[in-house]
Amino acid sequence: MKKIGVLTSGGDSPGMNAAIRAVVRTALKKGMQPIGFIKGYNGLLYENYMEMDWSSVSNIIQRGGTVLKTARCKEFYEPEYRQKAYENAKAMGLDGLVVIGGDGSYRGAGYLSELGLPCIGIPGTIDNDIACTDYTIGYDTAMNTVVECVDKLNDTSQSHERCSVIEVMGRHAGYIALNTGIATGAVQIMTEEIPVTVEQVAENIERTRGYGKDHFIVIVSEGFGNPNEVALKIQEITGIDSRATILGHIQRGGNPTLRDRVVATIMGNYAVNLLEAGKTNRVIAMKDHHYVDYDIQEALAMKKGLNMQFYDAMLDVSC
Ligand code: ADP
Fold first, then answer.
1. What's the pLDDT at 123?
2. How far apart (Å, rounded) are the C-alpha atoms in residues 11 and 285?
3. 111 C-alpha to center of ligand 1: Å?
4. pLDDT tens, 208-227?
5. pLDDT digit string, tens, across residues 192-209
6. What percentage of the chain has pLDDT greater than the value 70?
């Protein structure tokens, strides 16, 4: 094992830089030449890469985003382009590849492994929507960003006795909504996994108003529905002035938290150890506070849901 690549693919997340740094530095420590591919699989396909050394990852552990850039690469859905990428890898003498991204990126890595390029996946996405792992790099930072923003909105909601409806990321996964809902004292969360109607939310608001509460937070997961419509309906039913705020891409940026830096560093190091041991087609995961690895196809077939104990607790405490 002499030359190994690293790339970031799909949506970015805070902590990706820490993972890149760990891959590069571990590889150097083992006497390997690390290569950074630019803009995900595009870098491999269009031969856009750079040789990385100790200093190319200096002073990035604390920075959000990804120094390697990230992008979708639609060509990778076609076998002939994957073949081309594989041939590029062989021609440059690449012995392995670490792919930092989500499920889609692992699919690409699975195909490359099948063609003969050893690949290891690292979970990097703010949504925590990768079934094989309890935790994905960027999740903690994103949630802390949400909490900071919601706390600010809560201040002004309190002054004006308003209801603040806040859309957070997590298109098909309500993990961010659930945890930030608990942490900000939301009266309700609305996600794809939880079949709650606006009428029921309004009912909860009315009930807590009966206890003396005069301002309200409702967290809505992206993809659940239009937060402006939710706010309007709450206002119609309850008469409480209601405003919607979409937090958007602010959730993807910022300096990674301690947790994201640590997880990214351990996973990056683990990935290079796996390649050195001759492993391929594996994805790294955190299970019950331990770091483990799974076959990519097995990992992709796994399912995980929201922790309903958390949801019940949120409801008990908030309404
Ligand atoms: P994520 O990795 O966060 O799930 P995407 O689903 O956008 O993000 O995937 C990132 C990239 O991985 C895609 O642009 C593509 O290059 C590659 N990819 C995704 N799905 C596949 C697939 N089924 N086959 C091959 N490559 C894929």
1. 98
2. 18
3. 11
4. 999 999 999 999 999 898 99
5. 999 899 999 999 999 999
6. 100
| pTM of the predicted model as reported, rounded to 2 decimal places | 0.96
Does residue 53 have a pLDDT over 80? Answer: yes
Give the ligand 1 atom nearest the CA of 124.
3
User: Would the CB of 76 count as within 6 Å of ligand 1?
Assistant: yes
Instruction: Give the C-alpha separation, 265 to 281, whole Å.
Output: 20
Kindly give the distance from the C-alpha atom of residue 222 to the centroid of ligand 1, in angstroms, as a whole number.
Answer: 20
pLDDT at 1: 67
Q: Which of 84, 107, 296 to mutate to test the pocket of ligand 1 (most atoms within 8 A of CB)?
A: 107
Mean of all residue pLDDT scores within the chain: 96
| pLDDT tier, 319 (very low <50, low <70, confident <90, very high otherwise) | confident
